[in-house]
Amino acid sequence: MRESRPLVALERAWVTLGGVPVLRDVTLTLSAGDRWAVVGANGSGKSTLLRLLRGDQWLDPLRPGRRRFWSGDGEPSASPIGARERMALVGPEGQDEYARADLDLPVEAVIRSGLDGERYPVHPASPPRTALVEEAAEALGVAPLLRRRFLSLSRGEARRVLVARALAPGPEVLLLDEVCDGLDLASREALLARLTGVAAGVTVVTATHREEEIFPGVERVLRLEGGRVSADDPRASGRAASGRAASGRAASGRAATGRAATGPLLFDLRDVTVLVDGRPVLDRITWSVRAGEAWGVTGPNGAGKSTLLRLLAGEEQPATGAIHRLDLGPRADAGQVRRRVGQVSPELQARHRFDASGESVVLSGFLGTVGLAEPPTGPRREEAAALLERLGLARLRERRFLSCSYGERRLLLLARALVSRPEALLLDEPLAGLAPEARRALRETLAGLRRGGTTLVLVSHHEDELEGLVTRRARLAGGRFEPGP
Known about the structure:
The chain has 485 residues and is of the alpha/beta class. The protein has helices spanning 46-54, 92-100, 107-113, 127-139, 155-167, 185-198, 244-247, 305-312, 334-337, 346-351, 358-363, 378-390, 406-418, 436-451, 463-466; strands spanning 6-17, 20-31, 35-40, 66-70, 76-77, 87-90, 173-177, 203-207, 220-225, 228-234, 265-276, 279-290, 294-298, 320-325, 341-344, 424-428, 455-459, 472-477, 480-481. The protein has 2 domains: 6-247, Rossmann fold (3-Layer(aba) Sandwich), CATH 3.40.50; 265-481, P-loop containing nucleotide triphosphate hydrolases (Rossmann fold, 3-Layer(aba) Sandwich). 29% of the residues lie in helices and 25% in strands. It has a 6-stranded mixed β-sheet with strand order 6-7-8-3-9-10, sandwiched between helices. It has a 6-stranded mixed β-sheet with strand order 15-16-17-13-18-19, sandwiched between helices. Strand 11 (265-276) and strand 12 (279-290) form a beta hairpin. The longest helix has 16 residues, at 436-451. The radius of gyration is 23 Å and the shape is globular.
């Protein structure tokens, strides 16, 4: 019979962020061997619940709730010290911390830091510690990356490294927040298979917006609505994974190029190579994007997709070859491009760490700055308010950005990208972290923009996000475009 020793108990727990209740009156007990999934809309409190369980988030001091931890001696404590050290949390916020701090460690050091529970490794690489690092890296398929710099990795490669970091010390509890975001189909399937095995001996709580990412072995699904547990669904092991293959269909091995538009060239690449850490991430590519086209770009993790978007935006420059952006010539930089092109990406989201209002974040899109570079005019504030209303985000206008969920921040950045009525939108996994209803609404918005003539370049690892939305396809592999059929 499975052990039922309690690990964390919440009793009428409330969490308030930026003056807004995020969790409301939550009562539950996480016990050793539990395997839970947490689902719900953006802003429902999923990520906050994970942080609360680990002790990274405080309860609202003005509410009557309490939280208790068991650290092994049988006596509960209000302090997470002793219990938190046996819990590992993997999610987009932790990944963004490396970019914000410019913490460009070797991958080996990132995984080794998990043995110390710190972002930076405290102890040197002794033979026993090296063995643990290599074992975790091998299990997650990142052993070939051990000598690479962490910030040179693709989003998906970095996510797998962080899962290896979490598993290296052998945690008692594994907390996973949208762990598959940024992973290509093969990497998702491999990670979910690995987690299925891990769940046999570790307490797991996984928060996700995609039903197909609830891996076999999960026995309880909690649904959050408005910060409350609205449904608690015990389920048989493996039932949750039934729709995975259908929703994660891979594209055919070759790129379907579609029909070219006849508009003027917006981006024109000729034999372009881009180097990152001295290695070619884009390798002698020739490609063009015309006004009115809607491109979907796919490919495995590390193929160069995000680098391609940064190149279009002027944030990367060719080592060899030439690129013409808009009508700005071959030497246009990011400052010139960002006034005319809208962007959404995980890297841009990581840079937004100031606690501005949602309205201020959107207003910054008029100049393409991170933060308001100048006081907004009345007409611009009216335009921003109207856009937020049109996108169904008026509730976020006065919210503090850092009190919003990860998905809500992504939606605000989309509004920021749209507010200046850009000539083109460069979208790197724009639907990542969004609940199904938010994904549907955003797809409808993007489809309307495409019909209105806005040029789209959209990177995604999910075929269902591209179907019916893009008119042209390209597939990157090893820094080069695969030939069309």
